[in-house]
From TrEMBL:
It comes from the Eukaryota. This is Uncharacterized protein.
Length: 179
């Protein structure tokens, strides 16, 4: 058929095709991509403000696509933030009013992006991905009541971990959908 065999940690559209037990190894390419970008900037003589802008616009944008689908391990998020901190040598994630630079906490941002995807699934239950997930993981209940189940995909595990954010920020309202 002319199909080539790929390694388990091969990448398609920037995302891993298979997420095994070693999540750190699977997502380590993300840290390496950010590190390579930062290494290219070290030769340039940039002001502190220039470094801050590069980190915010480029380095923090690199993981967003992957974070929309997968929960990146917290230890890897911390390592990525350390790589950025070594480049800019300051307290990155403190709010500006506390003397920080206002950089995102990558792990918290990752959870927020996954919660956004979960909310999208709740709001559009007829979408293809919502129907596939419903058929596989929560046939007889809502997505908020679903269990992780037996041998779930890493995408489903990630969404289930982000479900806590949706539950914290929502309230049950009794009604008949007309009021």
């Amino acid at each position: 058929l002319g199909v080539r065999r790929v390694d388990q940690h091969d990448v398609y559209l920037g995302l891993p095709t298979h997420v095994g037990r070693s999540r750190r190894q699977c997502f380590n390419s993300l840290k390496e991509r950010i590190w390579k970008k930062i290494q290219g900037w070290k030769a340039k003589l940039l002001s502190f403000a220039g470094k801050e802008i590069l980190l915010k616009v480029v380095a923090q944008a690199v993981p967003i696509y992957m974070m929309n689908c997968f929960l990146i391990p917290k230890c890897l998020c911390d390592e990525i933030q350390q790589v950025m901190a070594r480049y800019c040598w300051n307290k990155l994630c403190l709010p500006k009013q506390e003397g920080g630079l206002g950089f995102r906490n990558l792990y918290a941002f990752n959870m927020a992006l996954l919660a956004k995807q979960l909310w999208r699934l709740i709001q559009t239950p007829d979408s293809l991905v919502a129907r596939i997930l419903k058929a596989r993981y929560f046939k007889n209940c809502s997505i908020l009541e679903a269990q992780i189940g037996h041998s779930p995909s890493y995408i489903w595990q990630s969404l289930c971990k982000a479900r806590v954010l949706i539950e914290k920020g929502s309230r049950w309202r009794i009604g008949n959908d007309h009021s």
